[in-house]
């Protein structure tokens, strides 16, 4: 009797799981409308596609798929779906704005423009089709560089086939190519920033972007907290051991132990919450450190770097009074910020126009000091792995 009960539950489990596997695999058989299904293929089936745009625009492709090969042609309708983007923003704490339909076009693989009513055709005996998404030049007046845009598209119908609800949408996140100026820094004692109002905050995020000319210097610091009221926060960076978060002691376990490269842009983020400090480099978690509570006092300062600067490049120093999520970190990995963004406490773009000014400092106050030698390099392209200077002639 015991054996019969086990088989009963085994059959139930198989009955539940089989439809899921057949829907998620690429075409693995043949099927009619009643047993086939349609979904949007995206990397890791997460519904997200990163779309890099050059200044004059760009092209990417989407792939609507059938779970199984069809013996007859299938027309798949794809439409603009702002609700899908609203859900993504809410679920991920993001703030992408929908790119209006007038700013992009959909076409088949041959470049023939598609309308939502026409859809894309999957031939008989096949299981997928390509949709071209083409975005033209986005002028900075209508589409400011410090705003993030996305194209939300969803499958709205497919002949008499069913849709897989969890995989019917694709959110195209636009990564726009921009030109900016950056600071080239040598010597000094780091850049010292005295934020306002952080002494009441239990969590925080520090961000900076840097290219180090070498990563073999002794005691090369990224950032540290001066005059804090809680535990110590001091960091070092190395080519072999990665980044150290020193919280009262040294040791191999205080390093991320993930090697880093000199001469490359390192977008570094420190997130502190609930006695844990998480280190991100270029939007990816390096390590989560268990440490004591690290808090600010009224006279605390964030110091970015130390006297070890030697022709290193810096930009986008930010302090937040909240623990940013991984999605939030990646949303603005290299783009300039809107100073009015909620929870942003200190913001130094380190551009030629703003120099070392904190755009969040109270009016009439100067809260940034440095003895470093700083010059500014213009027309630096982002995103880029290395320092890319675009000739404007």
UniProtKB/TrEMBL annotation:
InterPro entries: BT_3987-like_N, ConA-like_dom_sf. Residues 1-27 form the signal peptide. Residues 35-161 form the BT-3987-like N-terminal domain. Keywords: Signal. GO terms for molecular function: hydrolase activity, hydrolyzing O-glycosyl compounds. Pfam families: BT_3987-like_N, Laminin_G_3. One of its GO terms (biological process) is carbohydrate metabolic process. This is BT-3987-like N-terminal domain-containing protein. It comes from Bacteroides fragilis str. 1007-1-F #10.
């Amino acid at each position: 009797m015991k054996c019969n009960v086990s088989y009963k539950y085994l059959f139930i489990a198989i009955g539940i799981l089989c439809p899921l596997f057949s829907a998620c695999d690429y075409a693995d058989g043949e099927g009619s409308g009643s047993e086939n299904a349609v979904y949007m293929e995206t990397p890791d089936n997460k519904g997200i596609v990163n779309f890099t745009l050059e200044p004059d625009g760009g092209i990417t492709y989407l792939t609507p798929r059938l779970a199984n090969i069809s013996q007859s042609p299938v027309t798949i309708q794809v439409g603009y779906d702002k609700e899908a983007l609203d859900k993504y923003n809410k679920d991920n704490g993001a703030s992408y704005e929908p790119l209006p339909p007038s700013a992009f076009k959909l076409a088949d693989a041959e470049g023939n423009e598609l309308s939502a009513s026409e859809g894309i055709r999957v031939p008989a005996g096949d299981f997928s089709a390509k949709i071209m998404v083409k975005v033209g030049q986005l002028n900075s007046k209508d589409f400011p560089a410090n705003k993030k845009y996305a194209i939300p598209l969803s499958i709205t119908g497919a002949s008499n086939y069913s849709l897989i609800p969890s995989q019917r949408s694709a959110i195209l996140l636009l990564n726009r190519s921009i030109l900016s100026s950056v600071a080239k820094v040598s010597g000094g004692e780091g850049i010292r920033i005295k934020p306002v109002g952080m002494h009441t905050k239990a969590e925080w995020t520090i961000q900076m972007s840097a290219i180090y000319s070498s990563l073999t210097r002794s005691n090369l610091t990224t950032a540290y907290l001066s005059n804090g009221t809680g535990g110590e926060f001091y960091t070092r960076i190395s080519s072999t051991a990665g980044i150290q978060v020193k919280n009262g002691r040294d040791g191999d376990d205080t390093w991320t132990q993930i090697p880093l490269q000199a001469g490359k842009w390192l977008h570094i983020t420190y997130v502190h919450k609930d006695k844990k400090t998480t280190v991100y480099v270029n939007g990816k978690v390096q390590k989560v450190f268990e440490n004591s509570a690290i808090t600010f006092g009224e006279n605390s300062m964030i110091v970015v770097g130390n006297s070890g600067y030697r022709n290193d490049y810096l930009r986008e120093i930010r302090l937040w009074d909240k623990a940013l999520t991984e999605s939030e970190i990646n949303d603005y990995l290299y783009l300039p910020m809107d100073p009015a963004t909620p929870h942003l406490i200190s913001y130094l773009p380190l551009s030629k126009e703003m120099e070392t000014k904190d755009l969040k400092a109270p009016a009439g106050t100067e809260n940034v000091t440095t003895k470093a030698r700083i010059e500014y390099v213009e027309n630096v392209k982002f995103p880029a792995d290395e320092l890319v200077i675009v000739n404007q002639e």
